[in-house]
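Reading a protein record of the kind used here takes little practice once its layout is understood. Each number in the token line that follows is a code from a learned vocabulary of backbone shapes. One such record is shown here in full, so that the layout can be seen directly:
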Amino acid sequence: MIYEKNWEDYALLDASDGDRLERWGKYILIRPDPQVIWSHKTSGLWNKADAVYKRSKGANSGGGYWDFYKKLPEKWIIKYAPLDLNFEVSPMGFKHMGLFPEQAANWNFMHNIIRESKRELNVLNLFAYTGGATLACARAGANVCHVDAQKNIINMAKRSAGLSGLENAGIRYIADDCVKFAAREIRRGKKYDAVILDPPSYGRGANGEMWKIEDNLSGLLNMIRELLSDNPVFVLVNLYTAGLAPSCAGYMLSDIFKNRYGGRVESDEIGIFTESTKIPFPCGAFSRWINL
């Protein structure tokens, strides 16, 4: 498992009974996480939370709501100091905060490999959300095409870019269906040196198009192959789908990219260091093909 220990404005304080206890800046929040299947509270801060996200009642109801014990600002800023990045965060629907702190381990990888390439790279970030990966790549000097279907999320990404002093970096923001955008880029003859994908497990497009990662990821990766330049550097895929091992995406990356270009494939879990137990907490998986 890879994980980042150098967060200052974020911390996973503890995890127990289906919940995470986290510090976002100066605020302590409790959010549900289905991977927390153990019951062992170690931290003494559980009773000092400023807000908790409570699941809706009923096994199939979905969703939930924030219960604020104290008055919190609508949004605030947290900093990832190692890359000098600032992010706007906010208690949002479906327990989200507008940022996945565990991805800092991947941000470091992207930033470092772009610097190591010693050339100006064009990066495509699909399902880009609020742009943590986009900003990490831009900080390293890459030109980034940031694609997400939700305009409000893209606006949040733009604000974080401004907060990080990257408002004039080479970032192009596109509000579009990622698969349709990739198809159009192929027709245009556009090429990229690196591609990042953070696809949802399941979703629907604006016109009802269905996305299911088990059915559609392989096809999208084959499209990505057509978008790569003659000297590509990496392709990175994040997996948050329960039941899919990291090596599932790794197998596809080997078949589609390594067999054509060479290089190597790395697959593993990604996590967050837990302050109370001093061990990493599993958050998902990733696989990356590297050609440098």
User: Anything to note?
Assistant: Helices lie at 104-117, 132-139, 151-163, 178-188, 213-227, 246-261. Residues 64 and 268 are 31 Å apart (CA to CA).
